[in-house]
C-alpha cells in the first residue's frame, strides 16, 4: 500500500501519517527503488490502533506508552482488540441514533436532548411549581451522563410518580433563607431519604456522582438550610447503600 491508500483505509490523512513518522510514533516502512514507501497490514493495524487511542482522548505520549506495551503481541490479538473497539463505537452510535429518533418523534423542548429513558421519566412526574423540584429535575438531567442507564430511571419511576413527594419539595422550598441549624432540617432529611426506593440505590453505579466532584457543586446550588438537608440525605443514602453491600 502507498501512503494515500493506508491513510484512506484507516480514515486519516496522509499528512497525519507523515506527522506520526516525524515524531517516531509510526515507524517508516521500507521504500522501493522508486522512493515510494510500501505499507503492510501490520502498518495499517498500528496506524488504526493509534487513531483509536487518540479518539479515546489519549495524548500522543500516552499513545506511545500503550504501543510500547503492545510490542511483541500477536497480530490476531491486536486485531481482536481493534474489533472490540469498533464494536463499542458502533454501540455508542446506535445509542445516539436512538436518542435522536426519540427527539424526532416528539416536539423539541428546552429539556432536549435527553435519552428516551430519562425523557419518559420526566414525563410521568407530576407538574409542580416548586423551585426545588425544578432544580432537582435540572440536576437529574445534568447527571445523565454519570448515572445514566435504564435501570436507574426505571427504579426512579415510582418516586417520580409519587405525589406524596411534592409536599416534601414544598417543605424544602420553605427553608430558603433559613440557617443551617433550623429544627426543620433533620425530620425533612429523614423523610426525603426514606422516600428513595432501595432499587435506586442498587441501580446507581459504584462511585456515583460523588466521584466526579459533583456533590459539593450540588450543595453550593442550595441555600444553607436546604444544602444541609441535601447533605444529610446523601449521607443517609450512602449508609443505606453500605448496608446493602455488606
TrEMBL record:
InterPro entries xrefs: DNA-bd_dom_put_sf, MerR-type_HTH_dom, MerR_fam
Lineage: superkingdom: Bacteria
Name of one Pfam family that matches: MerR_1
Gene3D superfamilies, per database record: 1.10.1660.10
This protein's UniProt keywords: DNA-binding
GO MF: DNA binding; DNA-binding transcription factor activity
CDD domains: HTH_MerR-like
SUPFAM superfamilies assigned to the protein according to its UniProt record, in alphabetical order: Putative DNA-binding domain
Domain HTH merR-type: 1-69
UniProt protein name: MerR family transcriptional regulator
Species of provenance: Streptomyces rapamycinicus (strain ATCC 29253 / DSM 41530 / NRRL 5491 / AYB-994) (Streptomyces hygroscopicus (strain ATCC 29253))
